[in-house]
User: What shape does this take?
Amino acid sequence: MDAPIREKMLRFQMSVPAQEQKYVIRSNKLGLDYTAWVQDDTGSNSKCYVMTIHDIGCSHSVFTEYVSQPEMRALKQRIVWVHVDLPGQEDDAAALSIEKYPSLDDIASELINIVDHLNIPQVVIFGEGAGANIACRFAIEYPSRVHGLVLVHPTGTTAGFMEMMKDKLNNWKLIHKGMNPDAEAYLIWHRFGRDAAKKSMFANYSKDVKGYGDSQLLEANIREFSEKLYQKRTAKNLALFMDAFLNRTNLVDKLDKLTVDCLVAVGKKSSVIGTTEKFYERLRESRNNPQKMVNSPLLVADDVGDVLGEAPDVLAKSMQFFLQGIGLLSGLPMEAGLAGLGRLSRAMSMEDADRPRRSSVLATTYDNITNNNWFTTKISFINFIFQITYTRTYINIYTYINIHKHSSLYLLMFSAHQ
Assistant: This one.
């Protein structure tokens, strides 16, 4: 067994999840079944609910594995996870009898059946890729049922011409030939980034892949993903879901209706880095007020294409900041064992540490600002760097937080009127 696979198995065994409870929930409108897997390690702790939605080529298992990483130990003990398999996308699924998959709007709308069935008043939705797109659509339709969104690699625009032509060919091959190398290469590119698909085509995969922080881990992740494509995915069902994603309607024009806070995350090597950045920029423009973006940061993880698989510690810490920022998991300290934050977690809870310093930083810097003058204030508190621009109406504070060896970017905006 290869060392990267042994390491992944060991990490998984170090934090074995509680027994998942399975629910098959029927959508009468679509005539299809959703599968929900409830993972609850909270015991008697106060808790919140997070519902996960997977990307094309995946099932809920990508989130089960992510939640079971050691980096997620603190969050796992306070969160009830509801992992959703979209219709026909669960492992070893029977072939669907339909010839056309529901639209992403319809898929999103019918998630309400899961929330209602499990009696969840409000939920945080954690979506990746196509799942992030679906999560946004649900939050737009049911804002009162959503605390916030964690969006990994969201795409808000319609498919471009080249993407459409490539997907049409792959879908045809999937339906008529089953899983094949062309579809596999496309899905690897989609999930792991623009360089990963090319690298995976070589049998002697270099352990020094330029631009990736841990190429052996990447290689193991790609190998595992490819095996599941052939062994666990049902080709026809996957083709139908890919076609629905291909024919997605424009989401960025609806972002003015998205009122909940969002953590947006993307890997610098992702195949959708440009699209995700455009999504975030449009989200910022649609809110038209920097104060509304205070709890909606952008996280960019350097040297990775797959944030969940390659940088789980970065995303775990970012999620905790985000959830506490929107009023959940108050008092939960950051684990001392997590790089870069041990000193903070030993001193005080995140809730206690965060609130006073935000106000004191803003108050302190405001007195020293002159018109149209840029300056940088460096604070040792987990390496915050504030770049402040003063205008006649408000101050924009761009906060860069280096919380890991992967350069993590938070873009927070505050407003202070004259």
Remarks:
- The CA atoms of residues 5 and 224 lie 9 Å apart.
- Confidence is low (pLDDT under 50) at residues 9-16, 201-213, 336-418.
